[in-house]
Structures are given as structure tokens and as C-alpha cells.
DNA sequence: CGTCAGATTGATATTCATCAAGATCGGTGG
DNA sequence: CCACCGATCTTGATGAATATCAATCTGACG
């Protein structure tokens, strides 16, 4: 395990890198972030970073690995409503929501940092612009969720899956984790089914159909997009909703 | 049409009522809101309040009627990713997103107020707590979208429709528009299909199945829930995600 | 080698979209 | 007042898409 000094540096850098994809972060703001108090924790596959119905007093940032927001229905089925990648401030809204309406679970091995809410409130008082950037990060999550609603509601399975892969590739690439449209995504087809709102068998067959297009390969846990433009065209993927434009907010 | 003084009073009251469902609004904060500059506009069914790919410099608040966020796919199908009710600050995220990734359309006749972004930025500088409340309103929108993802992805049509009705009833009731679980919802089944991600025929049949449960009647444009507790139980509806709890944020 | 999780496959039943045709309703103009 | 019209709702029939069930296969690992 990394020592704490490493974890802290990683967390602060990840967060700043995330924010800098969308706007400038001033030295003053960097300094505020660098002085946040944090605790760190590692999670195994399936473990919960944030528990449904709890009242967190800290918010959680992913340092490595993939997490998902999980909604369990009373009939026992599960829907994952969001996938978060390293650098995402996954649980920032707990600051405002107070009471969790869902869990955040580790889809893979995960390292995470927790920041006390009072420190975030302090930022919102002391640094309005930085506060808007944090606000922005929750708003981008909302934009992604809207894209997902459209995918589940109206796209064909093949396009839905391809759209997801495009999205992950672009998001990971923004934080340096998907060079040449290739990235590691160690999830099972069963997990993927809960992300896509399909059955396991359907996922398996859709994956095969996607491979047959020749645009993507997915071997072991490595996803590689061979022709991003063609895949984006096929799946009607337009990255505008990810808001990866650096401009004043 | 109302004169402007009326519209302004309605807008400010609607917004304060919305925020007060979740936290206290101080006299200072009220005053800031009351002095926002606004322009007002009326829309007919199907007209766009906010246009995809535009760069709004003002954000839009619904005063009366229902609006929806509309995503059009290249195959011509449509998905509505959110329904907004009077009092919702529909387009608050445009403040941060800059470039719209979707449209906001009038599902019925709609009156709306537009507030310049610079005034909202000023609030974020001058009133951190009020700013957090506005942030909260976008975060609640996100929570609703997550619930929708779960509904589209995993619930049966009957439960999905019932869940939507429960949600609308609770949200409308919070702003005084659904006394005794009865409210006006003048949308066509075709619009509903785009909300639910189903075909028109499916919506029609699901509506009939819902009527047969005896828990809901939907005549002309009036929806009445006869047994809210039973409907909520049937559809696995838990209002926690709407965050209608008044507490410090 | 045996075990286990995960991936794959085939068969079957169900659900759902689509197509096409009426029925109903509200409003309009003669 | 009535005939007509368009929008919306309703219904039945059909085929395609998808979930489900039940094996079987594969690869990693002790």
C-alpha cells in the first residue's frame, strides 16, 4: 500500500487534473485543495464506499479503480446508475443531499480519499470560483446520467454498449488513463449487465456483435477502440455532454 | 397574460418555496432573490425554452406548466430525460455547462422566467449558503435522474409508470399543486412514451393495466391517486431521493 | 487434477415494438 | 344543429427483440 504522503499527493493531483479539464485552477485554489484534510481507504471488489441510507459527514474521491452507484430494487434486481473513474469526486453531492438514496460500490479494487464536509463548506465560503468548479463536477455527472437515460431508453444494445465505451475512453483519456483509446476495464459481464440494464446473456451477445464490427476489441480486461471516429459515428456518440472544454465558469 | 409585477412575484415565490422545502432561506437571501433581474416568456406546447447546442447567458425557471429535457437521437427517436414542474429552476446548470447538450421543451403551455448568469454568479460570490441551495437543486435533479435510470433499466412498465406518478405527485404536492394526490398533467400518451422510453402502444396498455389496479385514475388530463401508500408499495417508490427534508445544508 | 468464477451457447417463452385499423373526442364551419 | 376534421386514444395481429433457463466451455489457481 502507498504511504499516506503518496496518497495525498495523488488525490490532490487527480482532483486538480479533473477540474483543469474544465477551467483554470488558481494557485490560491490549488493551495486550498492541497490543504484539505483527508483519510484514505482501500476497497475490494463489491465493497461499499458509501452506504445507502447513511448520513455521510465526508465526501469521497476515487484515486484508482472503478466505482458504481448502485440502486437495488425490491425484486432483487440491481441497476448501476453511474460509473466513476479515478479523479471523480464521486460522493460530492452527499455534502448537500445529507441522506444517501443509493450506495457507491467498488466495481474493481479501489483506493479512495475521504474529505470532511466541513472543509468543503469552508471552500464554498472562501472560494466561490472553486466552489463553482465543484458544483460543475456534480452537474457533469448529471449530464452523463441524462445521456445514460437516452441510451437505456432508446438506443439499441449495440449502440448503447458502444456509446458507453466511447464515453469511458474519453473520460479516462482526459485524466491520462486511456492512451490511444485503449484502457483497462476489469468488470464482469454480469456487472456490465447491471450498468446497461440488460440481461447477462444479452450483454454477452452484444459484446460479440460489437467485436464483429471490428471497431473494438475487448480481451481479458483491456478494451481497445480501433477506430474511434467510426465507433462514435456508429453509436451516435457526441462528447459535448462531458463538458471537456477549458473555459471560465 | 399576467402583468410583469405579477410574474416577478410568482417567480420569486416559486423559487423560495422550492428552496424552503429543503432548508431555511434567510431574509438576506430572500432579498437577493427578490432583486434578481428577470425577463418573462410564454411558450406553447412543443416550443423550446432552451435550445440544444446554444450557449445561454441566462437560466430559466418554470412558473407554470410542464417542461421536459429532450434528447433527440440520430435515428429520429426521442427520449425525455427529465420532467420539470412549476418552481423548478430548470436550466440552472447552463450557468456552469456553458454549452447545452440537450433542449428544454414545453410539454404543455408554459410560463418561464429567465435570470442572467452574471446575477447568479454574483449570488455565488455574495451568498455562499444560498449558492449551496441552488447547487442542491441541481443535485436533486441528478438524484431524480438516477431514479429514472433504475426505472427504465430494471422496472416493469407498470411499476415504472406508477413510480413516475408517485414522483410527480410528491413533487407537485411540495409546491402546493397536488392536493390529495390529485393533479393536472395534460400530456399525450406519445409524450409519455418518450418519457418512459416505451412505445406509444405499450404506454396505452400499461395505462389500462394501471387503471385496472384501481389505485389510480387518469381521466382527461387529471391524475388522481386513490391509495398513495398502496401505489408506492406496488411500485417500490421511496421518496427519499427527492430530498424533501428541511435541514441545514 | 479439481474447483470455481466467468464466459459462451442453444432452446424456449415472454415481452415489446411495429403496423394497421378503428373509435372517440373536441372543435370548426356550413 | 350537424357533418366533418384532425388529434388522440384504443385495439388486434404479427414478428422481432429480449429475458430466462440450462448446459457447457474456458482459464486461473491452489
UniProtKB/TrEMBL annotation, chains A, B:
**Keyword Metal-binding: yes or no?**
no
Among its keywords, does the record have Transcription regulation? yes
Q: Which residues form the HTH crp-type domain?
A: 155-229
Quote one Gene Ontology molecular function term: DNA binding
For this UniProt record, the keywords arranged alphabetically read as follows: DNA-binding, Transcription, Transcription regulation
Q: Which InterPro entries match?
A: cNMP-bd_dom (IPR000595), cNMP-bd_dom_sf (IPR018490), HTH_CRP (IPR012318), RmlC-like_jellyroll (IPR014710), WH-like_DNA-bd_sf (IPR036388), WH_DNA-bd_sf (IPR036390)
Q: What's a single GO BP term from this record?
A: regulation of DNA-templated transcription
What's this protein's name?
Answer: Crp/Fnr family transcriptional regulator
The organism encoding this protein is Bosea caraganae
Amino acid at each position: 500500500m502507498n504511504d499516506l504522503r503518496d496518497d495525498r499527493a495523488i488525490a490532490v493531483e487527480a482532483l486538480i487534473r479533473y477540474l483543469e479539464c474544465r477551467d483554470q485552477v488558481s494557485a490560491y485554489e490549488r493551495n486550498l485543495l492541497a490543504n484539505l484534510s483527508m483519510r484514505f481507504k482501500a476497497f475490494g471488489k463489491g465493497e461499499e464506499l458509501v452506504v445507502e441510507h447513511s448520513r455521510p459527514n465526508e465526501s469521497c474521491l476515487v484515486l484508482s479503480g472503478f466505482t458504481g452507484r448502485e440502486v437495488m430494487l425490491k425484486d432483487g434486481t440491481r441497476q448501476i446508475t453511474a460509473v466513476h473513474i479515478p479523479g471523480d469526486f464521486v460522493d460530492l453531492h452527499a455534502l448537500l443531499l445529507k441522506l444517501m438514496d443509493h450506495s457507491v460500490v467498488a466495481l474493481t479494487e479501489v483506493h479512495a480519499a475521504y474529505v470532511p464536509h466541513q472543509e468543503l463548506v469552508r471552500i464554498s465560503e472562501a472560494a466561490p470560483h472553486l466552489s463553482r468548479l465543484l458544483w460543475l463536477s456534480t452537474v457533469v455527472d448529471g449530464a452523463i446520467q441524462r445521456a445514460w437515460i437516452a441510451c437505456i431508453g432508446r438506443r439499441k444494445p449495440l449502440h448503447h454498449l458502444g456509446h458507453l465505451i466511447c464515453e469511458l475512453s474519453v473520460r479516462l483519456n482526459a485524466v491520462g488513463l486511456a492512451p490511444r483509446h485503449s484502457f483497462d476495464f476489469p468488470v464482469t459481464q454480469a456487472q456490465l449487465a447491471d450498468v446497461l440494464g440488460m440481461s447477462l446473456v444479452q450483454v454477452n451477445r452484444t459484446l460479440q456483435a460489437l467485436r464483429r464490427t471490428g471497431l473494438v476489441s475487448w480481451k481479458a480486461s483491456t478494451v481497445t477502440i480501433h477506430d474511434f471516429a467510426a465507433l462514435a459515428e456508429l453509436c451516435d456518440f457526441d462528447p459535448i455532454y462531458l463538458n471537456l472544454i477549458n473555459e471560465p465558469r
